[in-house]
Amino acid sequence: AVERTLSIIKPDAVGKNAIGEIMARFEKAGLQIVAAKMLQLDDAKAGGFYAEHKERPFYKDLVGFMTSGPVVVQVLEGENAILKNRELMGATNPKEADAGTIRADFASSIDANAVHGSDSAESAAREIAYFFETSEICPRG
Ligand code: CMP
């Protein structure tokens, strides 16, 4: 089925000037970027996005990292988009990411891991709505 998923290009990858290369991987895999914007997150916006991790030991560092520089948030649309994006990203920990994945090529640690992608249809709906108004999403049909 055609799905939408939220992708974030994190501050480490933006800092490496890799926005275009990462977006190209999505497009080459057949996903369309139907919404995109660059944002500087603050503690409240980043903390709210990762609210489900609030009790985890890495939460404070995660919010600190996600506010350390600009991010690019995008909505990707396409057949099986949620799983396809997760395959393109590779494992959360870049040491475990398959060769040729975004995290294998651009991430340096489990914190600075280049990209985020929704992990389920429920997360995708919530995460897309967290960053985008319906009017900001531009499907091309
Ligand atoms: P992301 O997909 O953005 O979701 C939560 C993030 O927390 C994850 O990517 C990692 O960058 C970060 N993180 C740090 N430590 C861990 C951990 N032990 N397990 C999972 N995520 C972690």
Automatic annotation (TrEMBL):
Record Gene3D superfamilies: Nucleoside diphosphate kinase-like domain
PROSITE patterns per UniProt: NDPK_LIKE
UniProt key word RNA-binding: no
Annotated family: Belongs to the NDK family.
Coarse class of the protein's main subcellular location: cytoplasm
Cofactor(s) needed: Mg(2+)
Binding positions for ATP per the UniProt entry: 10, 58, 86, 92, 103, 113
Phylogenetic lineage: Bacteria, Pseudomonadati, Pseudomonadota, Gammaproteobacteria, Oceanospirillales
Active-site residue list: 116
InterPro entries according to UniProt: NDK-like_dom, NDK-like_dom_sf, Nucleoside_diP_kinase
UniProt keyword Magnesium, yes or no: yes
Pfam families: NDK
Primary role: Major role in the synthesis of nucleoside triphosphates other than ATP. The ATP gamma phosphate is transferred to the NDP beta phosphate via a ping-pong mechanism, using a phosphorylated active-site intermediate.
Matches recorded under NCBIfam families: PRK00668.1 (NF001908)
Protein name: Nucleoside diphosphate kinase
Species for this entry: Marinospirillum insulare
Top-level lineage group: Bacteria
Top enzyme category: transferase
Catalysed reactions listed for this entry: a 2'-deoxyribonucleoside 5'-diphosphate + ATP = a 2'-deoxyribonucleoside 5'-triphosphate + ADP; a ribonucleoside 5'-diphosphate + ATP = a ribonucleoside 5'-triphosphate + ADP
A single MF term (Gene Ontology): kinase activity
Assembly and binders: Homotetramer.
EC number assigned by the record: 2.7.4.6
Record keywords, A-Z: ATP-binding, Cytoplasm, Kinase, Magnesium, Metal-binding, Nucleotide metabolism, Nucleotide-binding, Phosphoprotein, Transferase
Annotated localization: Cytoplasm
